[in-house]
Amino acid sequence: MSQKTEFLKPILSSELITTLNAAIGERMLILAGSCTAFFDGRIKSTLELGERILIIKKDLSILMHGVSGVKPLNWQKPKQGPISFLKEKNELVMHTKRKKTEEELWIRFRSIDFVILWAGSDFSSLEIYGDESDLVKYLVEHPSIIEKDLQILSTEFPTDVGYVDIKALDNKKKLLIIEVKKRKTTPSDAFQLKRYKDYFEKIEKKKVRAMLIAPSFPDKVRKYLENNDLESKEIDWKTIFPTISREKNVKIDDFF
Amino acid sequence: MSQKTEFLKPILSSELITTLNAAIGERMLILAGSCTAFFDGRIKSTLELGERILIIKKDLSILMHGVSGVKPLNWQKPKQGPISFLKEKNELVMHTKRKKTEEELWIRFRSIDFVILWAGSDFSSLEIYGDESDLVKYLVEHPSIIEKDLQILSTEFPTDVGYVDIKALDNKKKLLIIEVKKRKTTPSDAFQLKRYKDYFEKIEKKKVRAMLIAPSFPDKVRKYLENNDLESKEIDWKTIFPTISREKNVKIDDFF
DNA sequence: TATTGTATTTCGCAT
DNA sequence: ATGCGAAGTACAATA
Questions:
Q1: Residue A238 has pLDDT above 70, yes or no
Q2: Is the CB of B166 under 7 A from strand D?
Q3: Integer distance in angstroms from CA A218 to C1' C3?
Q4: Distance CA B81, CA B102 (A)
Q5: The dihedral of CA B50, A127, B106, B67: what is its sign?
Q6: Domains of chain B (ranges plus CATH)?
Q7: Has this prediction a pTM greater than 0.90?
Q8: For residue A145, what is the DSSP state?
């Protein structure tokens, strides 16, 4: 009964219902079959009959996946509320209701292909490096990549219009505001930089420089930057990627 | 061989490798076991040994789920590149490489608990209603919710700085630009509205009104709106939620 | 095909 | 808890 992987008979019996309800929160449940679904919450969604996979993890997170795509068709975050199975009109019904938000999810299986209970565990951590904060950190440690004789003043400097990635002085002691993007820039990025420039020119009562650093600049963005006296610097992060490394998000999955 | 659900022997044999490679893109593959993973792409991530579930869908999307949480530990979007299994150092290794971005994902299974090939299909559509476009639509049909004697001119009106949700004339024939948010507002929402106002005042060469409609306004947002002659209107969408209904995203999963 | 904007965004971090 | 910005965002609509 407490074997690592248990294959249940895919037949809608009261025994199945009992076993499923007992497994919730104890083992991961993987169930495939033909179902409909209804979600009522921040949004409403209905899903007509189709074949899908339902996964209920030990932390009570719910995932219902269709045959394609990375995003689940329906889901619920961990520990939002009790989950129960019941038999209704010859269908296997899963129901959950979030305690706080009153959001509800119903999944009704008309047929079942397989049901698995799996007792997996995981104590390792996902290490990630190479995100935006790593890039800012790297630039601060190697300012000459941006330009010669740059003096870094601060990072994540708070202003009324947001946090400035890098605040620095150039070789003529002129203030340089830098926004760093890991991805291709968008018009919004340029607008944001403009707000920073305006903010500092108002505060300092003199011209300041402002620069967007990113791997790619679409024409529209480049044009806006030029028209607004904003600078751009293209950096292909891959070229410095191998040299940066950092451990973060050292997160251990809870042990149930 | 082409049964709907096939349970493979969870033993690392060359037969398993062959069967898995043959199943890729043909049936959904669900594999549980103890593995490590490495992703190298826009970011780098490493995942130490732990028990996880690997799912490869027929559209070649890859999901690797840990024992908790809704978000996969590693994943790949559909049709990004070929996927292959191989045997290496007595481990079952899954590898994929995106053609364009050169991003790679490696998953190495040290042990396998179960392997399933499943021939599910789904032709139904997820119907969603109550999202932002529904709200805009509802407001356009019931403009008096915004204010009396409002005349709607257009929706999704394109400007140099983005698309305006609603363009209208108030009871004094003054232009009113409206931005609708289903969620709590952020400073960026207010900045965006300001850009719209500036844009239209430049075009029209006279003052225009601009309003943000949303269920909630943090102090910082409210203050920015006040300081910039921008209006706000609080609407709790739940009050009108039950009355709006619409079908969308009528999308059929490809048949493989 | 590339761009744009939403999302039951999710997630981490700072307040 | 709330606020805020980044994300391998994913995904659909659109130009």
A1: yes
A2: no
A3: 10
A4: 10
A5: positive
A6: 5-118 (2.70.180.20), 132-243 (3.40.1350.10)
A7: yes
A8: G
